[in-house]
Amino acid sequence: MNTLPEVSVVIPAYNEAAGISVFLERLSAELETCCTAFEIYVVDDGSDDATWSELREFRKNHAYLNASRFTRNFGKEAAILAGLREARGEAVIVMDADGQHPVSLLPEMLELWRRGKAQIVAGKKIKRFEDGLIARLNAWIFNTLMHTLTGLDLAGATDYRLLDRRVVDALLSFPEKIRFFRGMTIWTGFTRAEVDFEVAPRIAGNSQWTTSQLTRLAITAITAYSAKPLGMIFRIGGLGMVVASFLALQAIYSWTTGIDVPGWTSLTVITLFFGSAILLSIGVMGAYLAQIFDEIKARPEFLIAAKLDDLPNHD
């Protein structure tokens, strides 16, 4: 592939062996109808199933596919970054490998970009039939916290989005190691458009996301894009000083008048409240310190174990 493609599709994949080939067939068939030249780049995020073998097999008959494999699971954000660094297209589309991001949306996204309507075209989910109560609750808590603490409205937001080459170059120029792809694309300020879609069922397998992973993502996103939690600690401290001053005045009054004012219950509640607030405050500061710690180590975001271009086309 000597000429630069018009469109690059970046696909992070983790344990998607059961459906990756079917998805790539659907994707390439759609791209052939709306692109003059394209490439697909898959990043195997340290899968412990046969995802890499499936990619090697698919590559034998599809030269437009390239892929790399991490030495271990570094996470989706690292996989997206690795794909963006390899993508050569004038437009770069990021989408999941499980088939829940519909390939039928690609022509509309590309049309908006080609007509100059937007430099970022984001897919926005409007329905998700597979999600249970816990999954919807987790998503609501995550989006509410993000909007409250960072100002980013991520309701319905996904990683399914088209980026103009200028946007990609801007993202790659950012020096930080800890990244949140959805937030970073919004932060750039490039013109945006949204395209609604209904989340399709997975081609195969189950979602790899857990509540603990979503919690870690929320902590990373919030501490990376806002200092509001630190301001909240300051306000809690100010409230504590007001309450402490009131109790001190009450104690002085009781001592000088000789009146025994009962207050053990209220004092216990206040002590427990502010004791918990102090521990929470330490935890918040710890999260920011952890971000700083990870950044100053300056370790690479990921390590590559292999690339399809570096391997012979046989197992």
Overview of this protein structure:
Helices cover 50% and strands 16% of the residues. It has helices at 20-34, 51-59, 76-86, 106-114, 133-150, 165-173, 181-187, 211-225, 228-257, 264-297; strands spanning 7-13, 38-44, 65-70, 91-94, 120-127, 157-164, 192-198, 304-307. The chain starts with 6 loop residues before the first strand and ends in an 8-residue tail after the last strand. Helix 9 packs antiparallel against helix 10. The protein is α/β, with parallel strands linked by helices and 315 residues long. The chain has ten helices and eight strands. The relative contact order is 0.14.
SSE topology sketch:
Layout: E1 7-13, H1 20-34, E2 38-44, H2 51-59, E3 65-70, H3 76-86, E4 91-94, H4 106-114, E5 120-127, H5 133-150, E6 157-164, H6 165-173, H7 181-187, E7 192-198, H8 211-225, H9 228-257, H10 264-297, E8 304-307
Parallel strand pairs: 1-2, 1-4, 2-3, 5-7
Antiparallel strand pairs: 3-8, 4-6, 5-6
Helix pairs in contact: 5-8, 9-10
- End-to-end distance, in Å? 23 Å
What is the SS-derived class? alpha/beta
What's the CATH topology label of the largest domain? Spore Coat Polysaccharide Biosynthesis Protein SpsA, Chain A
- What low-confidence regions span 5 or more consecutive residues with pLDDT below 50? none
